[in-house]
Amino acid sequence: MQLRLTRTQLNELELALAGAYGARPRYRLPAADEPAATLLIRDITAGRRIELLDTETTPIAVLEVAQSQTTDRGTWVAGEITRLREPATPPFADLRPGPGRPLLDHAVLVIGHDRVPGDDPVIHLDTGDTDALARAVHTARRDRRTVRVLPEPAAEHLDGDARTTLLTYLAEVTTASHVTVSRRRATPRGNGLVVLFTGLSGSGKSTIARQLTGRLRAETHQRVTLLDGDEVRAMLSSGLGFSRADRELNVRRIGWVASQLAAHGGIAICAPIAPYRSMRDEVRAMAERAGRFVLVHVATPLEVCEARDRKGLYAKARAGEIAEFTGISDPYEDPTDADVTVGAHGESIEECTEQVLAAITGGVGSYII
User: Fold this and answer.
1) pLDDT in tens, 182-223
2) Which class does domain 2-83 fall in?
3) How far apart are CA 51 and CA 283, in angstroms?
4) Where would I find the APS kinase domain in this sequence (predicted)?
5) Per-residue pLDDT tens digits for 240-289
6) Cys bridge to 76: 69, 324, 350, 368, which one at CB 3.0-4.6 A?
């Protein structure tokens, strides 16, 4: 079986292969008190041998699964890692941990911001946001400071102080003998917003999204952009098919564009099917780096969607004329983390729109996020 790794999962693999977790590259089951490379898989069943792919779907390593542990979040897997080939070159490869690269005497690990006072060497995290990393590195170079890059691992079992402890450990093992941490104080996020609608074909998500867009354009000073699934496929994702990889890439593109709009203070309304939980999580992560994120599940029952089907797509899918059709021959993973759920009980488009507006504004009637 194959697993395409996310950016932070690739970071974790990079660290493991660089010896940050020990001489033998391997994943372990998560433990809060022991630094270890971990791997959580969600959408596939773990086999005995997992081929790990980079973002370009190139096989780069093999995991021989020796242990696994299934939770409500997915399955953690553990075992020995064998490198097959180098992945696609990561940003600032010359600044990242690598064999033979000498340790600095000391450095400041910068978490959550671009700049710290002084002239000490700095370590910036690669969180998967290439633009943010480039800004941080260029700022350090402009200030004539020594700069290094630490890949931030997925480490999905850790947060808060435990995560900072892991990052400090990794920085001291790979980059500098003594590390101090500079963390940005909590500040409000930008006023951008990404609203992601998800639901079956025919659920009404595009219609609700259009009505929501009209309401927001009339009632807020912020720029509002609608990224409808069909229109995006025709323009931004022309040429993609409906395989899982192509669907994931389509949603990833939508999420990236939406997060860029939000980063500049806009509101992006997105209405793809977005059937896979892992991709919705990825869009949430991108969006929340720029501002707020609201996930809307349009939970119209399958039988209602089929009855509304003016294009006859469901009938063709049941007849085997359309392969990989969501809800029939391809799974739809119901969200467990939706900020608002509409459409499950026959609500009108207007009622659904009002519920989404209430979720966005907190019921106070203000569209300034």
Assistant:
1) 986 544 456 789 999 999 999 999 999 999 999 998 888 789
2) alpha beta
3) 24
4) 192-342
5) 777 888 888 889 999 999 999 998 889 999 999 999 998 999 999 889 88
6) 69
Domains 2-83 and 192-361 alike in fold = no
Non-local CB neighbours of 354 within 8 Å, separated by 6+ positions: none
Tokens of 47: 């086999």
Annotated domain spans of the chain: 2-83, 93-183, 192-361
Neighbour-count burial for 260-279, b at 16+ CB within 10 Å, e otherwise: ebbbebbbbbbbbbbbbbbb
Q: Check: CB of residue 205 under 8 Å from CB of residue 326.
A: no
Token couple for 313: 């797509």
The strand pair at 49-53 and 2-4 is best described as parallel
Going by CATH, does the domain composed of 192-361 fall within 3.40.50.300?
A: yes
